[in-house]
Amino acid sequence: MSAGTPPRCVPEKIRLSDNVIPVKIMTATEASRCFLDLLDAVERGETITIVRGGHPVAEIGPARRGGVGLRAASADAAPDEEFSRRIAEAAALLRSQLNDPRTGP
Question: Which of 47, 52, 69, 104 would be 28's cystine partner, CB 3.0–4.6 Å?
Answer without folding.
Answer: 52
